[in-house]
Specification:
The chain has helices at 38-46, 88-93, 104-116, 132-146, 162-179, 190-196, 214-219, 223-228; strands at residues 2-11, 14-22, 27-31, 53-58, 61-62, 73-76, 150-154, 182-187, 199-204, 207-209, 212-213. The protein has 232 residues and is an alpha/beta fold.
Length: 232
């Protein structure tokens, strides 16, 4: 589903270099320290960080110079990116209609997405009336409403306690498998990868060299990943 080959993305004083494949129904965790280029990979796939070389394909389609709005991907930001002055109905509605001219059928889809993510009955609430976990769920509901085959997750569990991390992780894993999505999840935490990711792609010193099965990558890491994980 996602194919990244020979990618180079200049950012600041370095260039991210990446080669990676993620199949449908699969979650791949991109693990590494801050500043290594993890989020840059997501931004490049979403169309916000132009590469200087390489290709990005989704379902065989070369995205080339396609603008972000024309890419079959949804980027779920770390800060959930909900508009504070809009209620959940309109926040989710933006995933369907940029001008928010919502039909009765759109409202039915919004209510279904809220129910699907455990937020039934909360469509009239604004983000400041929700808990942190509920805001993350609302952002995921909007992402699912967009119905794109690729889901990009930038630190989706940052700032959540253990119970909420597990709850949201289970929800993401279930929806990814159910819809056959290809998902890339940026994280610092190997436990997040163990919980829901099929594969792990280390991002170290601005380089991503493919992915390995999660247990294999974390239980038998190469020297660079072992150093990051604090192992000898």
């Amino acid at each position: 589903m996602i194919e990244v080959e020979g990618l180079q993305v200049p950012r600041g004083g370095f260039a991210l270099r990446a080669d990676l494949r993620v199949g449908p129904g699969e979650i791949c965790a991109v693990i590494g320290p801050s500043g290594a280029g993890k989020s840059t990979l997501l931004e490049a796939i979403a169309g916000f960080a132009p590469p200087s070389a390489g290709t990005i394909r989704v379902a065989g389609r070369d995205l080339g110079d396609a603008p972000p709005s024309d890419r079959p991907v949804t980027l779920l930001f770390q800060d959930h990116n909900l508009f504070p002055h809009l209620d959940l109905r309109r926040n989710l509605g933006l995933g369907l209609r940029g001008g928010l001219r919502l039909s009765a059928a759109d409202d039915m889809r919004i209510e279904a997405a809220l129910a699907e993510t455990g937020l039934a009955g909360l469509s009239a609430r604004r983000p400041d009336e929700l808990s942190g976990g509920q805001r993350r769920r609302a952002a995921l509901a909007r992402a699912l409403l967009r119905d794109r085959p690729v889901l990009l997750l930038d630190e989706p569990f940052e700032g959540l306690g253990p119970a909420l991390r597990e709850e949201l992780g289970d929800l993401i894993a279930a929806k990814t498998a159910e819809r056959g999505l290809a998902a890339l999840m940026v994280t610092h935490d190997p436990d997040d990868a163990r919980r829901i990711a099929a594969t792990v792609a280390p991002c170290l010193d601005g380089r991503i060299k493919g992915a390995r099965p999660t247990a294999e990558a974390l239980d038998r890491p190469d020297a660079a990943l072992a150093a990051y994980l604090g192992r000898r």
